[in-house]
Amino acid sequence: MINNKISILSRLLLVVAAAALVVSIFVPIWRIELAAPQYPEGLAMLIYADKLGGDVDIINGLNHYIGMQTLHAENFFEFTALPYLIGFFAFITLLTAIIGRKKVLYALLGIFFSFGVIAMADFWRWEYNYGHNLDPHAAIIVPGMAYQPPLIGFKQLLNFGAYSVPDFGGWLFIGSGLLMLLATVYEAKFRKPKLSAGLFFLPLIALSTSCSTGKPEPIVLNKDNCDFCKMTIADGRFGCELLTNKGRVYKFDDLGCMLRYKVENMKLSPKEFFINDFTAQNVLLPAESAFYVYDKSFGSPMGGNIAAFKSETEANAFAQNLKAEVQDWKVILK
């Protein structure tokens, strides 16, 4: 006889998922951050299940100049329905744990993931409408320009960088789905006692992976601009990048520009630095592992005149010819 009951482990995973969904109702689910030279600390709009928070009033004031509609919670029916929908999913997730039937678990997973897809599609529709339906009589009009924020990730909008990511409640929501998925996979294929302990911690590992932020982006020569001096990056030997903890990439045409930008934006929270290999053409290296030589003869775009090398042997060869010294990243940062 086929056993249609789910295990104690799967029931526990569902209880945790239900609790996470309840908490997500009361904390920010999503955040859209805006960064610009005139706002070095950035502006953030926090999206809860039932309201908007953060710097929404300031953002509304800025949006008025470019013809975007102001944002008010009462204008969105989603803010009325979403708390109840999340509460409903928390309830049926807990009910599934109590009933303990595989078919109910599989149905729960399908409905929950369908809801997630619909919610993201609705969020994209909302962003599209607000980014494209502009007041033709606005104070600032840029022909052909739309201001739709990214669904997820980073996008440049005039002099503002817009960064859209899940907030704490969003990660709880995602984690709940992962717990449901884990319980389903466990019941369908891997229901073996020796796997139970490892599978219980798998959602934490998955969440940690999903929370990891960004990676370096290839510099597009003669197209990308330096975020400090605003010059077009044309020399593939000196380009460099700064990657923040939030995953945003800032590009520079010279190491000197990147270091000055870091100093002037102390709240930027840099995570990693990357620098082009002087002996290759536009190939980024982790800045911490590179070796550096300073000499005026390099003639870098903004006068930093510091070349980076992948190996200490290459750096020493250049340094000897130029009667210079090889330096490491710690010295460069000073």
Q: The biggest beta sheet, please? A: 5 strands, antiparallel
Q: What is the radius of gyration computed over CA atoms, rounded to a whole number of angstroms?
A: 25 Å
Helix and strand composition category: alpha+beta
Give the helix level as a range of percent.
40-55%
- Strand content is 15-25%
Summed up, the domain count is 2
Poorly predicted regions are 193-197, 205-213
User: From N to C, what is the helix and strand string?
Assistant: HEEEHHHEEHHEEHEEEEHEH
The 3D shape can be described as flat
Distance N to C terminus: 71 Å
Strand order of the largest sheet: 3-2-1-5-4
Number of DSSP strand runs:
12
Q: Counting H and I runs of at least 4 residues, what is the number of helices?
A: 9
Q: Average pLDDT value?
A: 86
Structure report:
The protein folds into two domains: 8-210; 240-333, no CATH class. Helix content is 44%, strand content 18%. It is built from nine helices and twelve strands. A hairpin with a 2-residue loop joins strand 4 and strand 5 (160-166). Helix 1 runs antiparallel to helix 3, helix 1 packs antiparallel against helix 5 (168-188) and helix 5 packs antiparallel against helix 6.
Quick structural summary:
The model is unreliable at 193-197 and 205-213 (pLDDT under 50). The chain has helices at 8-24, 56-66, 78-99, 102-132, 168-188, 193-210, 255-264, 312-322, 329-333; strands spanning 30-36, 39-47, 52-54, 153-157, 160-166, 240-244, 249-252, 270-276, 284-286, 291-294, 306-309, 326-327. It folds into 2 domains: 8-210; 240-333, no CATH class.
